[in-house]
Design goal:
Blueprint lengths: L3 E4 H8 L3 H16 L10 H10 L5 H10 L6 H15 L5 E3 L4 E5 L2 E5 L5 E4 L5 E7 L7 H18 L4 E6 L4 E3 L7 H21 L2
Parallel strand pairs: 1-4, 6-7
Antiparallel strand pairs: 2-5, 3-4, 5-6, 7-8
Helix pairs in contact: 1-2, 1-6, 2-7, 3-4, 4-5, 6-7
Length: about 210
């Protein structure tokens, strides 16, 4: 199998799913990636775009509010929850958006992509910077699963924004998640290798 590619956000969905749900997720993701006209990307797209603009704006709250006002009825309750969580988090943050690049993490035939369109980077007054993956879905994101995404971000940092550190933001809950200093990276790498192998098995099975 060559060239199987999945975004980090979609791979995160896969890793946090139940065993029963994994095959269905891969089936849906396969359809998305093989059909350039798929509308599955569109649901959270306007909110993701608003997030990227907001963190570089002097009026972040209004940019997010504008995205909520323009939401379709099916999007509205989700966007309102995201808006509330964003405002709680942003009110505690002294940072501004800075440029980043896209990158990928490759393992065993699977390429996990991190796009500047679906992620963002922040710089703080003390000069440190973070590359942030916004998590927008309804179920709360647990620390164990977040750590897997954080490790992928960490490995891709040299391509994304050299010198930055990774962060996953559970937007609905306004909750930033970061790697602990004493986290066992070898264990995370082993778990990621297993998840990638499982994903490829599912990908082949639903072909």
């Amino acid at each position: 199998m060559d060239g199987v590619q999945i975004s980090l956000g979609s791979f995160l969905d896969y890793m946090r799913s139940t065993p029963r749900g994994c095959a269905g997720i891969v089936r849906d993701q396969r359809e998305i990636y093989l059909d350039e006209n798929s509308m599955a990307w569109a649901f959270y797209g306007p909110f993701r775009a608003a997030l990227r603009r907001a963190v570089s704006s002097s009026d972040a709250v209004e940019i997010i509010a504008s995205a909520v006002r323009q939401a379709r009825p099916v999007q509205l309750p989700h966007f309102q929850e995201l808006q509330a969580g964003f405002e709680r988090w942003w009110g505690r943050v002294a940072a501004t958006g800075v440029p980043m690049f896209s990158g990928r993490w490759n393992i065993g035939g699977l390429a996990v992509t991190i796009s500047e369109r679906s992620s963002l980077a922040l710089r703080y007054p003390d000069g440190r910077s973070e590359v942030v993956l916004p998590y927008l879905k309804e179920p709360e994101l647990g620390a164990d699963t977040a750590n897997l995404a954080l490790r992928i971000l960490e490995r891709a940092i040299p391509a994304l924004r050299p010198g930055a550190t990774p962060m996953v933001l559970d937007v609905r809950r306004g909750k930033p998640l970061r790697l602990r200093k004493n986290v066992n990276r070898a264990e995370l790498d082993a778990l990621l290798a297993a998840e990638a192998a499982k994903y490829l098995v599912h990908w082949t099975a639903v072909a």
